[in-house]
User: What shape does this take?
Amino acid sequence: AFGALGHGVSDAGSRALLPVKDGAVLPASVTQVCKGVSGAPGSLKGSFDNDAPAGTVERNTPSGIFGHLTRAPQGETCAVASEQQVHTGEATILCTVSGSEVRPYQVRIRQVDLGESASGRNLLLTVTDPALLQATGGIVQGMSGSPILQDGRLVGAVTHVLVSDPTSGYGIYIGNMLKAAA
Assistant: This one.
C-alpha cells in the first residue's frame, strides 16, 4: 500500500476532489524547473514512463491519494514520528529537482499544528538549503508528497507553497495521512 501527495487531486476551477476511476503509478523524471518567485509559484516539469507502471491509484482523499504498488520502492525505511516527536527546528525533505535522483535538502519547521486537518497545513516549513534555493527558489508545484524527515523519523509530506514567499510552504503530518489511508 502507498500514500502520496498529502492533498487530494482536484479540479482547478472548482477545487472539488476528482473521483478516481482508475489510475497508475508511473516512474517520472524531472526535465525542467520553473523557479518560484514572490507572487508566482514555480513548478517542476517532467516526463512519465507509461510503459513501466509501478502500481495503481485507488482513492483520492483530501489528505492524499492512496493505492497499491506492484513492486517495492527503492530506498531505506524509517520510523514514523508520533505527535510528541514532531517539533520546530531543523528537518530534511527528500525530493527530485533534476532527472530521477532523489536528494535530501535542509528545511526548518517553523510551526507545528498536528490537529486532525485535511487541509494539509499541519507544518509550516522554510527551505534553508542553498542548493534547493538556487535550483527552485524554495518549494514549487510538483514537490507535493516530498517526505519530511526529522530526527531520523518520517514526520510528514510537503503539500503547498506560499505564493507570497516561495521559500516557505506547508506540510501534512504523517499521522493524518495514515488515518486517511485506513
Summary: The two ends are 11 Å apart (CA to CA). The mean pLDDT is 93. The first strand starts at residue 2 and ends at 4.
